[in-house]
Amino acid sequence: MPTPPGMSSGPFDPHASAVWPWLVGLVLVGLSLSPMLRPLGYDSFPFSSFPMFAHGRKDAVTNVHRAVAVGPDGAKVSLPPRALGSDEVLQADVTLRHAIRRGKKASAALCRTVARRIAGDPAHADAVAVELLTERHDALAYFAGDTTPLAPPKRQARCKIAR
Amino acid sequence: MKDTPSDATHAPKDMPLKPGPNGQGCSDMLSRAARAVDRWYRPVAAPERLAALRILVGGFAVAYLALRLPNLLGLHGLGGFRPVGVVSVLAAPLTTAAVIVQAVLALLLGLAFAFGLAFRVSGPAFAFVLLWVLSYRNAWGMIFHTENLLVLHTLALGCSPAADVWSLDARRARRRGAPEPVPSTRYGWPVRLLGLLTVGTYFVAGVAKLRLSGLGWATSDLLRNYIAYDNLRKHLLGDWYSPFGAWLVGHAWLFPPLATASLLLELLAPIALLGPRIARVWSLLAWGFHFGVWAIMAIFFPYPLLGLAFAPLFAVERLPLLRRLARSAG
């Protein structure tokens, strides 16, 4: 096969033969499609079955974990994802979920880390403590106006903010 | 932006396949079919189209990395290291210094990739480093599916001669008196491959929905419940959520048609490879799908929403901005 003129042509030009294009194509397309043959819900990077929306949900009842700053009067304010160590909300959500799943020690450790992070934050200058909470909600009812949790919030950890 | 690589003239019959002895029989048919597939996969295309894709994808990757730098550098604070993909070779998180080095290296190689500098090295090197850095970012329990296609496209471009024109390499070669590259199959296959990867990812996503939830995904409240749940967790976690989506979940009848349309769009993605017109229609619908996801779930997929996921299906080299850039580069 003649080598097409091109500036990257040299003694060995892989693009000039049909082998290299097919090799690259078959490997990349094959790996991209391979998650279809993997177990249900397979997820990795960059080859994924993209299961994020595929599960759906049988109902809209869900446990939501969150970190809150507690004021001197007991008022609770949601802390943003960056207080949990990430500007990405879903990454922060996973951090919170993992800590709670691992138990009291891990939850307390995360609570103290969050408290240290917000100690110097003027937006939370009045806060005296941090709590990690789990609330059970019906998301559809919540957005229909019934924001009361289905059960009293469960406190997973509480720690003071040292200043 | 009108045509796709399929508009280009076909490749010469140069695949190393042996025709049948008398032009008849099964092996001859197979040979002809193989040649037809080869001509489709490796159409003749102008080097400018591939170069335009390199600039667009590389430019996006550099901007993306730069904007995500605070996140990339702060990952160690998250805890819960769960390596995926290529970073599975790591038993523990990297040191802070190594994280900084890999981020800076990715940015520098990304610039070389986008500008087409020493592309034979910087092309594959950036593709691998981007794969590594984003795999590391995805190794903390949350996989960002907004990044998969960007990495796949970069890998394909990094393995191709995408810097033969509109690049610093090309300018240097011209000064040395090298001939101008001409349209060739070597510039057609990478463009085709990028298009295949785009439609492949949508198709895989559609199949996952069928495998996990069956047709019920399209006909029941599964999507509605998921949208309500997703917005609620973001709202309670103190982040942006979609008030529009929160309002919309109160209208149950809307969701089965929306879910059906989304599923069809994904499962029928391969039709975008049939020709330029259908590619335009599918791309527009897919873009609308991502706009809908943004509006209803506050999930921003920058790569498709900025049109880059669909760029391989269009004659992007005709974009005035790219032509101006190419002229000013010399």
UniProtKB/TrEMBL annotation, chain B:
Keywords: Membrane, Transmembrane, Transmembrane helix. The keyword Transmembrane helix applies. The keyword Metal-binding does not apply. It holds the Pfam family HTTM. Residues 1-22 are annotated as: Disordered. The chain crosses the membrane at residues 51-70, 90-118, 149-168, 189-208, 244-269, 281-303. It comes from the Bacteria. Residues 1-16 have a biased composition (Basic and acidic residues). Residues 93-315 form the HTTM domain. This is HTTM domain-containing protein.
